[in-house]
Structures are given as C-alpha cells and as structure tokens.
Amino acid sequence: MRPPRTEETAGAGALAAIGLTGKEVDTIVDLLPAPLFFLTRGGDVVHANRAACALAGAAVERLVARPIDDVLSIRALDNTIVAEAVARNVAVSGRCTVKGGERVVLSAQPLTVGATCLVVLTVSTAAVLGSRGRRDGAARDDHDEAPGRAGDGSSDVVVAASPALAAVRACAERCATVDAPVLLVGEPGSGKSLFASLIHRHSRRRERPFLTVSCGGIPPERLEVELFGRGPREDERTPQAGALKRADRGSLVLDDVSQLPPALQTRLLRFLETGDAWPVQGDRPERLDVRIMATTAHDLRRLVAQRAFRGELFYRLGVLVVRVPPLRDHPEDVPALVEALLDRLAARVGLRKRVTAEALEIMKRRPFRGNVRELANLVERLVLTLPGDVIDAAQVRDDDAEPSLPPIAQLLGGERVDLRKALREVEAAILREALRRFGTQARAAQHLGVAQATVARKSKQYGLGG
Fold it and tell me: When comparing pLDDT for 350 and 299, which is higher?
C-alpha cells in the first residue's frame, strides 16, 4: 500500500527525480503563469505547478502517476504531441481540445537530466494566447515559418538581406499605412503569415487583436461558427463569439483562403461589403470593424476562371497584394535566416552552434522546395542531433541526401502488378519525405492538406515512427 502523498512531498519527490530539490525551486515553478506538467516519457504526470493543478481541477498528489491525456481529458485523436516529442526527441507544439471543450496549445519538450528522461509539457490556455491575439481551434500555431523569425508575437523580425525580400518588406509596410484588405500570395512555407503580422504591427490596429483562422481541413459548418460565431443554444447560456467578433478593431488573417467553401465565400463577401456579421442561429447582425488579410498558395485567378472561387470575393480581397517569393529566388538571404534561426533555437533550447561559411554555401544551393519552413527544420535538426558547437559542410551535405519516390518502372516490375501495394509504397514514400522535411506530423499534415490524425495513423501503419 502506497503511503499518502501531500502536495509538498509529491512536488519534492518529482523535483528530486530530475535532480532538483528544495521548496525554493517548487515555489519558482508555482509562480509561472502557464500550466506546467512534468511527465515521464510514457506520458504519466510526476509533478505539476499551481496553474496546472488549477487547469486540471485537482491537487498535485491526485495528479501524480496519472496519464496526461486522462488528466486533461485529451481526445484520442489529439494525443500525439507528447508521443511525437519523445519519438523525435525534439520540441513539438500543437493545438488540442482539453476538458470542458477548451482549445489550447500544448508544447512538449523532452528533458534529460543525468539518467532521468522526462517531458516538460506547457499548456497555453486562451488567457495566455489572448495576449498574442491567438485562440480557438481553427487558429493556427504559426507553423508557417517565416524569414528570420527570432521570437514570438511582436518580436518577430523580417530578415531581408536580398533586394527581392527587401522589396516585399517595403510593400508590406506600405500596405500597413492604409486600411484595406490584403492578399498575400506565395508557396507554402515562404513566410506569408509573418508578413501579415508585420502589416498588423505597423498599422493603426497594432494594439488590437491579431487572429489567424485556417480555412483548410475544417468541416464547413465548424468553420462557419469559427468565423461568424453562434447564437445561444438551449444548452448554452451565452453565445459563442466568432473570430470576426474577437478580432473587432483588429486584424484577421484567413489562411489558405482558396479552401473557403462556396457558401462561406458568399458570407465573407457580404461582410466585406457591409461590415455586418450574422452569427449562426443569430437573430441580428453584428457591426464589426475588422481588417481582413488572406493568404494563398494557389492562383486565385485560375480558380475564378474555373468557377471554384467567387470573382467578386477575389477582387475584394485583392485590393492590396503582397507576393512573397520562394526561398530559391533569394538564396542570398539564407545566411541571415540561418543566424536568426540559430538565435531562436539558442533561446529556446539553450544550444548555441555556429554554421561554417562552406556549410552556408551548400545551404544556399539547396532548392528548399519547402521554403523557409524546410530551412528552419534543417537548422533545428542539425542543432539538436549533431555533436559539437560547429556545423560544417560535410554534415550539411550528408543531410542533403533526400529519399526519392519509388521509380515507376520498379513499381511496375514483374508479370503482375498489385496496384494497391504500389499505391501504398508511393503513399509511404510521400509521408516519409514530408515528415523528414517538415519535422512534425502537424506540419506534414498541413502541407499535405490532411488531418494530423491521418498522418499519425498512416505513419503507424507504415512504421515511419513519426
């Protein structure tokens, strides 16, 4: 029979497990405003700070030894963040739904102290995210890595050493001086979200909310509520505020706007024309003042010609256009981008490394089809996995060996072809490359246009360990 545990003894025992002792350390952890859980690599709680206990609704002695998905009532499909962090031994962040239906951001950081391996899980709740204008399920977690992102929120800086990117920055700054919709066009991972943030920070709305809503991969009915809100239902005392209302007097970014369903294209067009937003099941419109910015990696003119996107909405959104070039068109920015990424990693994980000039030259010649997002993943992988303080040309060259898809001739070899087996081989190769290039299941899923749960299931099916 286990002896009874008090909050103090449970906290002290957990801290001792990672080589820390004393009430002073326990007090410091409790002073942190964000909920903080210390977990075993299997996901069981060994300690939790005061904010985490408040979120879980239980004292620390009642949380110790319980699985984190049970403590937070994480839905099974969302419970991949800790496992992914452990499997890859890197920090992983993602949004999920916890008890009470609240959407939060979980950040899992593997930690090894001596012979003890733990995972530190930070929970960013709506209160924390609100200070950066981010909350709710459809709002993205800034996986669209952008040039020179050296920190979070307002500390983001656009690194523009090349004339091409400097011109884009100047264009974005000019857009900030007027109050009209902006369409940001560029390949996935090129940095559209950062330029949207730059426009907001340089505009008269800089002190107001800045939200991002993803238009892809979300059921239309859920996306409609996320954007426009919902009137009170029988089982709710208060209405649900949509992103438009939460962004009132601020800015709202519609990420991947080409994925907006036709019916919502019509509703968004009406809002842009009138400023009135009708909540789902609402009995009256709400007059709102929101600057709309939209990002896309697709040719909206072609979609308009194909009747897949409303022409009126395209012209409304495209009053101002910012075109973000792919990284291969401005390779001279790579050294400055790498330096900014190294600074960010040093601040986040405490590892300071240097990249040699020869290694930078190899990086500049790399095509980076995943753009700055792929560069960020490369730098993080090299910093976290390579020994020593210097990353040299040979190490970058070794990492540059990219797996290829199975040759068609190989798939069609033999007298009889199993089409299903061939398709599985191609699918596995695509998933393997996406996980290698983008680093996490969440980012791979976003790039492939599928749900993270699909990537997790397929990775397990093909034994990819992602």
Answer: 299
Q: How many CB atoms lie within 10 A of CB 442?
A: 23
Q: How far apart are CA 391 and CA 440, in angstroms?
A: 22
In the chain, what are the helix, strand and coil shares in percent, each to the nearest 5?
45, 15, 40
Residue corresponding to tokens 């800034």: 142
Using an 8 Å Cβ cutoff, are 295 and 256 in contact? yes
CA distance 225 to 248: 16
Q: Is the pTM of this model over 0.70?
A: no
Question: In degrees, to the nearest 5, what angle opens at C-alpha 192 toward C-alphas 344 and 245?
Answer: 100
Q: Are strands 291-296 and 251-255 parallel, antiparallel or unpaired?
A: parallel
CA distances from 453 to 25, 124, 237, 373 (A): 37, 21, 32, 21
DSSP labels, 350-409 = ----EE-HHHHHHHHHS--TTHHHHHHHHHHHHHHHS-SSEE-HHHHHHHT----PPPHH
Residue 441 amino acid letter: Q
- 97 strand-pairing partners: 103
* Residues 106/93, Cβ–Cβ less than 8 Å: yes
Exposed/middle/buried for residue 288 (C-beta within 10 Å: 0-12, 13-18, 19+): middle
Using DSSP's 3-state secondary structure scheme, residue 212 falls into strand
Least trusted range by pLDDT, from 161-165, 336-340, 448-452 = 448-452
Side-chain half-sphere exposure of 57, counting CA atoms within 13 A: 7
For the chain, the C-alpha Rg in angstroms (whole number) is 24
The tokens of 312 are what?
């009126």
Q: Which residues contact 355 (CB under 8 A, 6 or more apart)?
A: 338, 342, 363, 379, 382, 390, 391, 396
Read off the tokens for 136: 């709710």
- Angle CA(345)–CA(351)–CA(357) in degrees, nearest 5? 80
- pLDDT by residue (tens digit) across 71-127? 887 644 345 677 767 766 767 666 666 655 566 677 788 887 666 788 888 887 544
Q: What are the C-alpha distances in Å from 406 to residues 194, 370, 420, 428?
A: 36, 20, 14, 10
Q: Which of 23, 437, 169, 397 is nearest to 446 (CA)?
A: 437
Using alpha carbons, select from 162, 146, 56, 145 the residue that is nearest to residue 102.
56
> Please, are residues 420 and 426 in contact by the beta-carbon 8 Å criterion?
no
Tell me the per-residue pLDDT of 185-240, one tens digit each, with 9 for 90 and over: 999 889 999 999 999 999 999 999 999 998 876 788 889 999 999 887 665 566 78
- What tokens does 295 get? 């990002």
In the predicted structure, residue 7 carries a pLDDT above the cut 50? no
